[in-house]
Design a protein that fits this description.
357 residues; 12 strands; 12 helices; alpha/beta; ten-stranded mixed beta sheet; binds adenosine-5'-triphosphate; globular
Length: 357
């Protein structure tokens, strides 16, 4: 297998700290990777007055995979490029408990499900504007209550786009993903989450396309919940979930909520796939409140790197990395403050590396 090329982009806030810690593990574990760390984010803004220099973008295009830290406001152009321009339309967010993590439950053992979030449209279609514009373009439009847009007065709108093409490709991916999990010993159940009782047209379409696709996979189980019910169920019955498939903003919110089951934002990693070059990032953001103090938990980024290794076909390395994380949590001596420990970001990463051996 040819040596895989990974571009590591720290981004903003705690991003550079957790990416550096993860690269330290990857670079010293003997994994056959070429890791390139071009300038980007807040540091590049200071140095070049550009958070995403052209050479960095070109390196991303040529990479086998990209490891990304976090976006605050400065790196928004990087995120836009990785997610929308490269068209990574699926965000995979595993919610898995490792013994020793600071769960909000009395007992989180056995929690192991995945949230698949449509990553390119829905509420995050970046189609916002003045109500006056909408009013002008849609003079005859009426809500289902019969209200004209003029009736709202001045304000803003946001379009929540659910396209047939966007939903279809996401639904197909979700079915394939659940099928793969089933082959790996998981139940193979898809839980579709929408608000189709209120958003009858848009989420109605999302739900019906997911249902059309899942019918082509008779071995998969299937259920549907409204998002408010799903938010409650994932706290009450987390072990009944396998693969949750949902719209962009719902997935964003549910994943932050679900993270608390297994130790919080410091732990949950993610993969953004389906596009030209996949990228891997923690579920957490730039965490400005703790940035620059070497106390951020690197686990979410390390587990994102685990997903990256799997994506690159380096399954043994991915397993070794995950086993090392699990061992560090079980041991409990090198955990960061969010897990009730005193370790710094780098001390936690060093402990993971030591477990890889
Ligand atoms: P975004 O909306 O940008 O995705 P978010 O909702 O994920 O952001 P963050 O800014 O990442 O929110 O942080 C929310 C809280 O979680 C903050 O108090 C932050 O300190 C904490 N947090 C986030 N990441 C980590 C981490 N790696 N280690 C420890 N605490 C973290």
């Amino acid at each position: 297998m040819a040596r895989k090329k990974v571009v590591a982009l720290g981004g903003d806030g705690v991003g550079p700290e957790v990416v550096d810690a993860t690269c330290y593990v990857l670079g010293n574990a003997g994994f056959d990777l070429e890791i390139i760390k071009p300038p980007c984010g807040e540091a590049a803004m200071k140095q070049y007055n550009d958070a995403f220099p052209e050479e960095t973008r070109q390196l991303c295009d040529m990479a086998d995979a990209i490891l990304f830290g976090a976006t605050g406001t400065t790196s928004i152009a990087i995120l836009a490029y990785l997610r929308w321009f490269l068209d990574n339309y699926v965000n995979i967010r595993p919610v898995k408990y490792y013994v020793g993590a600071e769960t909000c439950l009395k007992d989180a053992s056995g929690i192991d499900f995945v949230i698949l979030r449509e990553n390119s449209e829905g509420m995050y279609s970046f189609a916002e504007g003045d109500l006056a514009l909408l009013r002008q373009k849609l003079a005859d439009f009426r809500t289902i209550m019969g209200k004209s847009l003029a009736g709202f007065g001045e304000g803003k709108f946001a379009l929540r786009i659910v396209s047939e093409r966007g939903t279809r490709r996401f639904a197909k991916y979700a079915c394939e993903y659940a099928t793969q999990r089933r082959k790996n010993g998981y139940p193979g159940k898809l839980t579709c989450v929408t608000k189709s009782n209120v958003l009858r047209q848009s989420d109605g379409l999302f739900q019906s396309i997911v249902e059309e696709e899942v019918k082509k996979y008779p071995k998969l189980g299937y259920e549907h919940y409204y998002v408010d019910d799903a938010a409650r169920r994932l706290l009450r019955y987390p072990r009944e979930l396998d693969v949750v498939a949902t719209e962009n903003m719902f997935g964003d919110i549910l994943a932050d909520e679900a993270s608390e089951l297994v130790g919080g934002l410091g732990i949950v990693g993610s993969a953004c796939v389906g596009g030209k070059v996949a990228y891997f990032e923690s579920v957490h953001g730039s965490a400005p409140d703790i940035a620059g103090r070497n106390i951020a938990n690197p686990t979410a980024t390390i587990l994102s790197a685990k997903l990256m290794l799997d994506y690159l076909g380096m399954h043994q390395e991915a397993d070794a990395l995950e086993r090392a994380v699990a061992a560090v949590y079980k041991d409990g001596k090198n955990l960061t403050y969010d897990q009730g420990g005193k370790a710094t970001t780098m001390e936690c990463a060093q402990a993971v590396l030591a477990e890889i051996g």
